[in-house]
Design brief:
- This is Uracil-DNA glycosylase family protein.
- It comes from Endozoicomonas gorgoniicola.
- It contains 8 helices and 10 strands.
- By secondary structure, the chain is of the alpha/beta class.
- It has a domain of 164 residues.
- The chain has a 6-stranded mixed beta sheet, with helices on both faces. Strands 1-2 form a two-stranded antiparallel ribbon.
- Strand 1 and strand 2 form a beta hairpin.
- Helix 3 runs parallel beside helix 8, helix 4 packs across helix 5 and helix 7 packs across helix 8.
- It is globular.
Length: 252
């Protein structure tokens, strides 16, 4: 079960805490030069994380983190409306969909989930192109430990780099058949649902025989329109699948 103290101890022990950063991998990330690497990327853990459902969003890198993490959490939890940047607007839409029926329609979803960064540094120089994949490869062990400490019931991977950090295989076909059957008795609809599941759902190994469902989505700020396409076509059936799958896992 999640413990804030254990998470803080982890950041301190690995020397990756905001304001006390001395990452043991920093010499390995020379591939990112000459971009300046701003560092420190502790998780945003909502003030109500775990009250409903433990959702962990795996994002990419981040801008320069403020030293006052409590202030950052307050700012994130207050985000709302049309002024959101594309990443947070997409994240808001997704978490709202996942928590539909559990929170009021006009309630901010941001207190109810945690968000980690797949990379603990950011090439924050104003450019929008991706930083070197070396950052994600070197930070992968940190991200996996964060996930273990946050003990999620659902993981959301935003973009291919985040999904590669998790490296999760497909969900067992028997589980997908059972979930699709719980949603509809129509065989054609079941096959349609399974095709969406094959594309967007994975199984992150938790322990032998157990897994945490992973929802793989395009990054909300992608410039090729993939997030809008996903939202308009795949989001509704994928949300139905996720909700039935988590019910099934809780019941088992």
């Amino acid at each position: 079960m999640y413990s804030e103290i254990e998470l803080k101890n982890f950041y301190a022990r690995e020397s990756i805490a905001v304001g006390a950063f001395n990452c043991p991998n920093k010499q390995k990330c020379s591939e990112a030069e000459p971009r300046p690497l701003y560092h420190g990327a502790e998780a945003h853990v909502g003030s109500k994380y775990g009250e409903l459902f433990r959702i962990v969003v795996v994002a990419l890198d981040t801008g320069h983190e403020p030293a006052d993490l409590e202030k950052r959490r307050s700012i994130i939890e207050g985000l709302w409306g049309e002024s959101l940047n594309p990443h947070m607007r997409g994240t808001t839409e997704l978490i709202q969909g996942l928590l539909k029926g559990q929170i009021e329609e006009n309630t901010s979803p941001h207190p109810f989930y945690a968000m980690i960064n797949a990379a603990k540094c950011s090439g924050a120089d104003g450019k929008r192109d991706m930083v070197s994949g070396a950052l994600y490869n070197h930070c992968r062990p940190f991200a996996l430990q964060e996930i273990e400490l946050l003990s999620p019931q659902l993981l959301v991977a935003q973009g291919k780099k985040a999904a590669s950090v998790l490296s999760a295989p497909q969900i067992p076909l028997d589980d997908l058949i059972a979930v699709a059957g719980a949603i509809s008795e129509d065989k054609e609809i079941q096959q349609w649902l399974i095709s969406f599941a094959r594309q967007h759902l994975r199984a992150y190994s938790q322990s032998e025989g157990e897994y945490v469902p992973v929802l793989e989505v395009p990054h909300p700020s992608s410039r090729n329109g993939s997030w809008t396409l996903f939202k308009n076509i795949a989001l509704a059936p994928v949300l139905s699948l996720i909700k039935e799958l988590t019910k099934m896992k809780v019941a088992s």
